Amino acid sequence: MKLDVIKLDGEKAGTLDLDEALFGLEPRADILHRVVRWQRNKAQAGTHKVKTRSEVSYSTKKIYRQKGTGGARHGSRKAPIFRKGGIYKGPTPRSHGHELTKKFRKLGLKHALSAKAGAGNLVILDDAKLAGAKTAVLAKAVKEQGWKRVLIIDGADIDANLKAAAANLTGVDILPTMGANVYDILKRDTLVLTKSAVEALEARLK
Protein backbone atom coordinates (compact mmCIF):
# COMPACT_ATOMS: atom_id res chain seq x y z
CA MET A 1 0.00 0.00 0.00
CA LYS A 2 1.41 3.37 -1.05
CA LEU A 3 0.49 6.62 0.59
CA ASP A 4 1.57 10.20 -0.09
CA VAL A 5 3.83 11.82 2.46
CA ILE A 6 3.23 15.50 3.26
CA LYS A 7 4.88 18.15 5.36
CA LEU A 8 3.09 20.02 8.14
CA ASP A 9 2.48 22.95 5.80
CA GLY A 10 0.75 20.65 3.28
CA GLU A 11 3.57 20.34 0.72
CA LYS A 12 4.19 16.89 -0.75
CA ALA A 13 7.30 15.04 0.39
CA GLY A 14 7.17 11.85 -1.67
CA THR A 15 5.42 8.53 -1.03
CA LEU A 16 5.78 5.71 1.49
CA ASP A 17 5.15 1.97 1.19
CA LEU A 18 3.01 0.76 4.10
CA ASP A 19 3.06 -2.82 5.32
CA GLU A 20 -0.15 -4.59 4.26
CA ALA A 21 -0.02 -6.73 7.42
CA LEU A 22 -0.49 -3.55 9.49
CA PHE A 23 -2.46 -1.20 7.26
CA GLY A 24 -4.19 -3.49 4.77
CA LEU A 25 -6.31 -5.76 6.95
CA GLU A 26 -10.10 -5.97 6.76
CA PRO A 27 -11.09 -4.36 10.10
CA ARG A 28 -13.06 -6.61 12.43
CA ALA A 29 -15.41 -4.90 14.87
CA ASP A 30 -15.33 -7.83 17.32
CA ILE A 31 -11.55 -7.62 17.73
CA LEU A 32 -11.60 -3.84 18.13
CA HIS A 33 -14.46 -4.08 20.64
CA ARG A 34 -12.62 -6.60 22.80
CA VAL A 35 -9.43 -4.53 22.92
CA VAL A 36 -11.27 -1.25 23.66
CA ARG A 37 -13.28 -2.98 26.39
CA TRP A 38 -10.04 -4.31 27.91
CA GLN A 39 -8.53 -0.80 27.83
CA ARG A 40 -11.52 0.91 29.40
CA ASN A 41 -11.99 -1.73 32.09
CA LYS A 42 -8.32 -1.51 33.00
CA ALA A 43 -8.59 2.29 33.30
CA GLN A 44 -11.69 2.15 35.53
CA ALA A 45 -10.83 3.27 39.06
CA GLY A 46 -12.84 0.68 40.98
CA THR A 47 -12.70 2.79 44.15
CA HIS A 48 -16.44 2.62 44.89
CA LYS A 49 -17.04 1.78 48.55
CA VAL A 50 -19.87 1.53 51.07
CA LYS A 51 -19.73 0.92 54.80
CA THR A 52 -20.66 -2.52 56.01
CA ARG A 53 -22.25 -3.41 59.32
CA SER A 54 -18.84 -3.60 60.98
CA GLU A 55 -17.83 -0.11 59.78
CA VAL A 56 -20.78 2.17 60.58
CA SER A 57 -20.55 4.22 63.77
CA TYR A 58 -23.16 3.28 66.39
CA SER A 59 -23.20 2.14 70.00
CA THR A 60 -22.86 -1.59 70.49
CA LYS A 61 -25.40 -1.55 73.32
CA LYS A 62 -28.51 -3.65 72.77
CA ILE A 63 -31.15 -1.19 71.56
CA TYR A 64 -34.00 -2.55 73.69
CA ARG A 65 -34.79 -5.60 75.79
CA GLN A 66 -35.17 -8.97 74.17
CA LYS A 67 -38.69 -9.75 75.30
CA GLY A 68 -41.88 -7.94 76.19
CA THR A 69 -41.80 -5.13 73.64
CA GLY A 70 -44.13 -6.73 71.12
CA GLY A 71 -41.58 -6.02 68.41
CA ALA A 72 -38.93 -8.04 66.64
CA ARG A 73 -35.78 -9.01 68.50
CA HIS A 74 -32.85 -6.69 67.71
CA GLY A 75 -29.45 -6.24 69.22
CA SER A 76 -27.82 -3.53 67.09
CA ARG A 77 -28.67 -0.38 65.16
CA LYS A 78 -25.93 -1.36 62.69
CA ALA A 79 -28.20 -3.95 61.09
CA PRO A 80 -28.87 -3.31 57.37
CA ILE A 81 -32.65 -3.02 57.91
CA PHE A 82 -32.23 0.16 59.94
CA ARG A 83 -31.80 3.65 58.52
CA LYS A 84 -28.09 4.54 58.43
CA GLY A 85 -27.23 0.94 59.17
CA GLY A 86 -24.52 -1.00 57.33
CA ILE A 87 -24.99 -1.86 53.65
CA TYR A 88 -25.33 -5.55 52.82
CA LYS A 89 -23.18 -6.80 49.95
CA GLY A 90 -22.47 -3.30 48.64
CA PRO A 91 -19.59 -2.38 46.29
CA THR A 92 -16.04 -2.60 47.60
CA PRO A 93 -12.75 -1.50 45.98
CA ARG A 94 -11.71 -3.90 43.24
CA SER A 95 -10.01 -4.01 39.87
CA HIS A 96 -12.26 -4.11 36.82
CA GLY A 97 -9.40 -5.26 34.60
CA HIS A 98 -9.29 -8.62 32.88
CA GLU A 99 -6.67 -10.54 30.96
CA LEU A 100 -6.07 -10.12 27.24
CA THR A 101 -3.06 -11.68 25.58
CA LYS A 102 -0.31 -9.50 24.15
CA LYS A 103 -0.76 -11.19 20.78
CA PHE A 104 -4.45 -10.19 20.69
CA ARG A 105 -3.67 -6.62 21.76
CA LYS A 106 -1.18 -6.33 18.89
CA LEU A 107 -3.81 -7.68 16.52
CA GLY A 108 -6.28 -5.05 17.76
CA LEU A 109 -3.79 -2.25 17.06
CA LYS A 110 -3.22 -3.59 13.53
CA HIS A 111 -6.96 -3.59 12.87
CA ALA A 112 -7.29 -0.05 14.25
CA LEU A 113 -4.54 1.18 11.91
CA SER A 114 -6.13 -0.69 9.01
CA ALA A 115 -9.52 0.84 9.82
CA LYS A 116 -8.12 4.36 9.54
CA ALA A 117 -6.19 3.54 6.36
CA GLY A 118 -9.21 1.86 4.77
CA ALA A 119 -11.48 4.81 5.56
CA GLY A 120 -9.01 7.29 4.07
CA ASN A 121 -8.41 8.92 7.45
CA LEU A 122 -4.70 8.14 7.67
CA VAL A 123 -2.14 10.87 6.95
CA ILE A 124 1.63 10.37 6.77
CA LEU A 125 3.85 13.30 7.81
CA ASP A 126 7.48 13.68 6.84
CA ASP A 127 8.17 14.84 10.40
CA ALA A 128 6.31 16.64 13.18
CA LYS A 129 8.78 19.33 14.14
CA LEU A 130 8.06 23.02 14.65
CA ALA A 131 10.62 25.83 14.51
CA GLY A 132 9.09 27.37 17.63
CA ALA A 133 6.47 26.57 20.25
CA LYS A 134 3.79 28.65 18.53
CA THR A 135 0.19 27.49 18.92
CA ALA A 136 -0.92 29.78 16.08
CA VAL A 137 1.42 28.05 13.61
CA LEU A 138 0.09 24.60 14.46
CA ALA A 139 -3.52 25.82 14.53
CA LYS A 140 -3.11 27.27 11.03
CA ALA A 141 -1.62 24.01 9.72
CA VAL A 142 -4.41 21.94 11.28
CA LYS A 143 -7.08 24.26 9.82
CA GLU A 144 -5.55 24.24 6.35
CA GLN A 145 -5.41 20.44 6.35
CA GLY A 146 -9.05 20.25 7.46
CA TRP A 147 -8.29 18.21 10.58
CA LYS A 148 -10.97 18.56 13.28
CA ARG A 149 -10.35 15.75 15.77
CA VAL A 150 -6.84 14.52 15.09
CA LEU A 151 -4.33 12.24 16.81
CA ILE A 152 -0.69 12.77 15.87
CA ILE A 153 1.65 9.88 16.65
CA ASP A 154 5.36 10.70 16.50
CA GLY A 155 8.44 8.53 17.03
CA ALA A 156 9.96 7.54 20.37
CA ASP A 157 10.28 11.19 21.40
CA ILE A 158 7.81 14.01 20.73
CA ASP A 159 9.16 17.33 19.52
CA ALA A 160 9.05 19.70 22.52
CA ASN A 161 7.86 22.66 20.41
CA LEU A 162 5.03 20.61 18.90
CA LYS A 163 3.94 19.36 22.31
CA ALA A 164 3.88 22.90 23.72
CA ALA A 165 2.02 24.27 20.68
CA ALA A 166 -0.64 21.56 20.88
CA ALA A 167 -1.24 22.00 24.62
CA ASN A 168 -3.81 24.78 24.07
CA LEU A 169 -5.46 23.32 20.98
CA THR A 170 -8.79 21.54 21.33
CA GLY A 171 -9.11 18.44 19.19
CA VAL A 172 -5.37 17.90 18.68
CA ASP A 173 -3.69 15.13 20.65
CA ILE A 174 -0.10 13.91 20.43
CA LEU A 175 1.35 10.57 21.51
CA PRO A 176 4.74 8.86 21.19
CA THR A 177 4.82 5.53 19.35
CA MET A 178 4.76 3.50 22.55
CA GLY A 179 1.57 5.31 23.58
CA ALA A 180 -0.30 4.28 20.42
CA ASN A 181 -3.45 2.40 21.40
CA VAL A 182 -6.71 1.24 19.87
CA TYR A 183 -9.08 3.44 21.92
CA ASP A 184 -7.31 6.75 21.16
CA ILE A 185 -6.92 5.88 17.47
CA LEU A 186 -10.59 5.02 17.00
CA LYS A 187 -11.81 7.99 19.05
CA ARG A 188 -10.31 10.55 16.64
CA ASP A 189 -11.50 11.33 13.13
CA THR A 190 -8.01 11.56 11.61
CA LEU A 191 -4.83 9.65 12.43
CA VAL A 192 -1.54 11.35 11.54
CA LEU A 193 1.64 9.26 11.64
CA THR A 194 5.15 10.55 11.10
CA LYS A 195 7.55 8.46 9.01
CA SER A 196 9.48 7.58 12.17
CA ALA A 197 6.20 6.50 13.82
CA VAL A 198 5.43 4.18 10.91
CA GLU A 199 8.88 2.58 11.19
CA ALA A 200 8.54 2.16 14.95
CA LEU A 201 5.03 0.68 14.66
CA GLU A 202 6.16 -1.78 12.01
CA ALA A 203 9.03 -2.88 14.27
CA ARG A 204 6.75 -3.10 17.31
CA LEU A 205 3.95 -5.07 15.67
CA LYS A 206 5.95 -7.65 13.72
TrEMBL record:
Subunit structure: Part of the 50S ribosomal subunit.
NCBIfam families: rplD_bact
Cited function: One of the primary rRNA binding proteins, this protein initially binds near the 5'-end of the 23S rRNA. It is important during the early stages of 50S assembly. It makes multiple contacts with different domains of the 23S rRNA in the assembled 50S subunit and ribosome.
Molecular-function GO terms, alphabetical: rRNA binding; structural constituent of ribosome
Top-rank lineage group of the source organism: Bacteria
Protein family per UniProt: Belongs to the universal ribosomal protein uL4 family.
PANTHER family: 50S RIBOSOMAL PROTEIN L4 (PTHR10746), LARGE RIBOSOMAL SUBUNIT PROTEIN UL4M (PTHR10746:SF6)
Designated gene of the protein: rplD
Keywords attached to this entry: Ribonucleoprotein, Ribosomal protein, RNA-binding, rRNA-binding
BP term (GO), one: translation
Name of the protein in its database record: Large ribosomal subunit protein uL4
Cellular component GO terms, alphabetical: ribonucleoprotein complex; ribosome
